[in-house]
Amino acid sequence: MITAIVLIKTSVDRIPEIAERIASLESVTEVFSVTGTYDLIAMVRVKQHEDLAEVIPGRISKIPGVEATDTHVAFRTYSQHDIEAAFAIGLDS
Questions:
Q1: pLDDT (tens digit, 9 = 90+) per residue, 3-28?
Q2: 93 domain residue, yes or no
Q3: Are 10 and 18 within 8 A, CB to CB?
Q4: What whole-number distance in Å separates Cα of residue 15 and Cα of residue 10?
Q5: What is the pTM for the complete model shown?
């Protein structure tokens, strides 16, 4: 699974509407409204790198009100949740 973090600039007055449209796209697992340079952050998870082109410039960037995107592809995922789950295998709570 390939994970991309997509930083998105939008029309400020349309953030909730745009966030909902992005969240409804296949391969988008979460959308966060954030402070700072960008307005939204979307987590995109796909099976192949080629699929990123279909989702990000092919769909996200074409949503009216999306002004710019900046995409970062993750090399590895580090998660406290994953670590705890791995050590809990086979153990009773």
A1: 999 999 999 999 999 999 999 999 99
A2: no
A3: yes
A4: 7
A5: 0.83
The CATH number for 55's domain is 3.30.70.920
What is the token pair recorded at 59?
A: 């769909």
Q: How far apart are CA 38 and CA 45, in angstroms?
A: 20
Least confident among 12-16, 46-50, 77-81, 85-89: 85-89
What is the rounded CA–CA span in Å between residue 5 and residue 8? 10
- For residue 57, CA distances in Å to 13, 17, 51, 81 come to 22, 19, 10, 31
Q: Is 93 exposed, middle or buried (0-12, 13-18, 19+ CB in 10 A)?
A: exposed
* C-beta of residue 55 within 8 angstroms of C-beta of residue 28: yes
Residue 34 lies in a domain: yes
Walk across the sheet containing 66-73 and list its strands. Answer: 28-33, 40-46, 2-10, 66-73
